[in-house]
Amino acid sequence: MTPSFRALVLTWLILVILTLTGASLGEGASPGLGLTLIVATITAWKGGMVIEEFLEVSQARPGIRYPVRLFGLLVPACMLLVHLYGPEIARLTSLT
After folding, report:
1. CA 2 from centroid of its chain's CA atoms
2. pLDDT band at residue 6, thresholds of 50, 70 and 90?
3. Residue 20 gets which letter from DSSP?
4. Are 19 and 47 in contact (CB under 8 A)?
5. Considering its fold, how many domains does the chain have in total?
6. Distance (Å, rounded) from C-alpha 43 to C-alpha 76?
7. Helix (H) / strand (E) containing 43
8. For position 3, what pLDDT does the model report?
9. N or C: which end of the chain has fewer CB within 10 A?
10. For the chain, first and last CA: distance in Å?
11. pLDDT tens digits, 28-81
């Protein structure tokens, strides 16, 4: 079932608010695990909203639906991994 125009507008407004929240956090907050967790959560929430409301992945076959949802969680997970293991990841992936 296609989402209503009202649901799409509401989703878009929530996405804008979350984006502005993330931008304001980036401007004023001190870096650390807490901030990384907040930003990763916002990213996961925004990704999930885009995947469900705009890509309408819930209508897709499981072979498409599950990998797309998994990809939406992969980005926030990578954000946390880079925060926790950044120097090790940089060392493992360097060309020199």
Report:
1. 23
2. very high
3. H
4. no
5. 1
6. 6
7. helix 33-49
8. 73
9. C
10. 52
11. 888 899 999 999 999 999 999 999 999 989 999 999 999 999 999 999 999 999
Enter the DSSP assignment of 94: -
Residue tagged 């650390």 (tokens)? 32
- Cβ-contact 57, 51 below 8 angstroms: yes
For residue 79 the two structure tokens come to: 């954000």
For residue 3, give every residue at least 6 positions away whose Cβ sits within 8 Å of its Cβ, in sequence order, or none.
11, 53, 56
What residue has token string 């931008």?
Answer: 23
Query: How much is the pTM?
Result: 0.84
How many H helices and E strands in the chain? Answer: 3, 0
Owning domain of residue 85: 5-93
